[in-house]
Amino acid sequence: MQSGQLAADPAAATVTDAAELAFATAQRSEQLRRILLPLAGGAALLLVWWALVEIFQVKPFIAPAPQVVARTVYDKFGLLMSNLAPTAIEAIGGFVLGNFAAIVTAAVFVHSRNVEQAFFPVAVLINCYFPTLVNMVRGLQAVSPQAMELMHVLSASRAEVFFKLRVPSSLPFLFSALKIATSTATVGAIVGEWIGSQIGIGALIIQATYNFDSALLYATVLCGSAFSVMFFLAIRAIELSVVRWETGVAP
Prior knowledge:
- α3 (77-111) packs across α5 (130-141), α3 (77-111) runs antiparallel to α7 and α3 (77-111) packs across α8 (201-210).
- By secondary structure, this protein is mostly helical.
- The chain has 9 helices and no strands.
């Protein structure tokens, strides 16, 4: 019996190693797919853009070719970066302040039903503030009854229930809203610069439009879009490090 077990152990170890290798290979393939597919999609869009401009002989002041925009980004990189800096500060500042206010309001709503019913309709009017507020309220309330009952059995205070139970359960909901807010904060900063600013991505867009400089206009929009993507990826990286159970790693 013992010799049979010893003989079976190497076979079981081989099967386990093969399964682990297959799982690791599948994970690497999935990661590679997630990187290559967006790059392929972007390349395809650039190719279609270039083809349309060439086939229909579109005038440069209407829609410049991708290579012209790329050259403009290179030639006017300093100008673009000097205007991106204030826009980035405005977007990040608005993102932090707006979402902080939404999180605080959500905590108040969760602890006071009367306050929620009184002021929730007013919050609907504030678009940049509303998505985070709704998701955070939903996340703070997404606590299993069994976990809540256990906290009551342990005589946990309201603060302990909030920080040890409600806050962890709300993080996936919160980060879903934060990732959306990265683009809305960037767009809000740019639109604000259209109205009353002499510097920034929004102001540069207006200047390029008035000067019929389509290449600079496209380059400026591309610069703002690139910042928005990097902002999104930064929040996503924070999410992966904070909401660790999403990746199957115990917190």
